[in-house]
Design brief:
With about 350 residues, this protein is of the alpha/beta class. It has 2 domains: about 1-100 and about 270-360, Isopropylmalate Dehydrogenase; about 110-260, Isopropylmalate Dehydrogenase (3-Layer(aba) Sandwich). It has 12 helices and 14 strands. The strands form 3 sheets. It has a 10-stranded mixed β-sheet with strand order 2-1-3-12-11-4-5-10-8-9, sandwiched between helices. Helix 8 packs parallel to helix 9 (about 245-255). The protein starts with a strand and ends with a helix. Bound molecules: 3-isopropylmalic acid and magnesium ion.
Length: about 350
């Protein structure tokens, strides 16, 4: 049976960056024998506008029938004032949860051509290759109770719950150890075990599970120190294993080491290998529709989709090589542009990747 890919462009720059990844997909289908069936759906603010909810049932049904989902980005000022359960971001969290996508892989890899665009000096980031393994369907993002309530004295109080079960910790720890086994074999588990009980348990369980992986070196680090170490000596890290919230923060931080948040893809995986693939950046409403957004994180997310969910390893490699080639050719979107490079728009960047890809076959 032909595998299905569901495409969810989302809001803001989502549609324009996803359109570039679709050009790459169209090329792979037409010229490289990739056999997939494409479908489209609504998620986020566009879904609220069309159906009244951020995750329509139809989208979820289609997603469950698909081998993989490719997502742009969701959210924007237009939907900030609406009821909390109807906000675009809730749709994103709901689809992550409903599909069981607990394992979020966020590689922070520096393309050598972009060393000058990094926020750190080249010597600190050359050959940087970190994999952040973020727990994605638990922790404070999903913990109950949550809300904003009014106290007896009339003032309001906001509250959230950080909760992790042993099973949730164990399964994400195993993802990190497995990933590390295919890399340098080192895991740094990031927590706040000195203050938060939920992450004290996290540290205990990770230490226990590590016994099943005698070849993997495990280190623990508090999140404040990890943030500092990431800008001090980022190359000390191989795999960073962490919670939902800490992973959200640290992956944005790590992205700047690689030049731009517009470069970083991600894979969110379920235990059956199905997954959702999205750039780690947001919907950037301020630059939407201007043909300036960087589509490379989305194109690299497509590469991860081919690698992890479709096991089309060669095609995945070729996409990465094509991205590297356009950077070598000096093409840059505005976010990574510098004086000696050629500034191109979103659309032209997509075309350039397809062209580079066609010379690799
Ligand atoms: C991310 C984003 C999301 C998150 C938002 C849009 C809900 O920041 O994927 O990193 O916090 O997980
Ligand atoms: Mg984030």
């Amino acid at each position: 049976m032909t595998k299905k890919i569901l495409i969810l462009p989302g809001d803001g720059i989502g549609p324009e960056i996803v359109a570039q990844a679709e050009k790459v997909l169209a090329y792979l289908i037409a010229e490289r024998g990739l056999k997939v069936e494409l479908d489209h759906g609504l998620l986020g603010g566009c879904a609220v506008d069309a159906t009244g909810v951020p995750l329509p049932d139809e989208t979820l049904v289609k997603a469950k029938e698909s081998a993989a989902v490719l997502l742009g980005a969701v959210g924007g000022p237009k939907w900030e004032a609406i009821d909390r359960p109807l906000r675009p971001e809730r749709g994103l969290l709901a689809i992550r949860s409903a599909l069981g996508l607990f394992g979020n892989l966020r590689p922070a890899v520096l393309f050598p051509q972009l060393a000058a665009a990094s926020s750190l000096k080249e010597e600190y980031v050359s050959n940087l290759d970190i994999m952040i393994v973020r727990e994605l369907t638990g922790g404070i993002y999903f913990g109950e109770p949550r809300g904003i309530r009014t106290l007896d004295d009339g003032q309001r109080e906001g509250f959230n719950t950080l909760v992790y079960s042993e099973n949730e910790i164990e399964r994400i720890a195993r993802v990190a150890f497995d990933v590390a086994g295919k890399r340098q074999g080192r895991v740094c588990s990031v927590d706040k075990a000195n203050v938060l009980e939920a992450t004290e348990l996290w540290r205990e369980v990770v230490t226990e599970i590590a016994k099943d992986y005698p070849d993997i070196e495990l280190e623990h680090m508090y999140v404040d120190n990890a943030a500092m170490q990431l800008v001090r000596t980022p190359k000390q890290f191989d795999v960073i294993l962490t919670t939902n919230l800490f992973g959200d923060v640290l992956s944005d931080l790590a992205s700047m080491l690689t030049g731009s948040i517009g470069m970083l893809p991600s894979a969110s995986l379920a235990s059956d290998g199905s997954g959702m693939y999205e750039p780690i950046h947001g919907s950037a409403p301020d630059i939407a529709g201007q043909d300036v957004a960087n589509p490379l994180a989305t194109i690299l997310s497509l590469s991860m989709l081919l690698r992890y969910s479709l096991v089309e390893v060669q095609l995945a490699d070729h996409i990465e090589q094509a991205v590297s080639q356009v950077l070598t050719d000096g093409l840059r979107t505005k976010d990574i542009h510098s004086v000696d490079t050629q500034c191109v728009g979103t659309d032209a960047m997509g075309d350039a990747v397809v062209k580079a890809l066609s010379s690799l076959s």
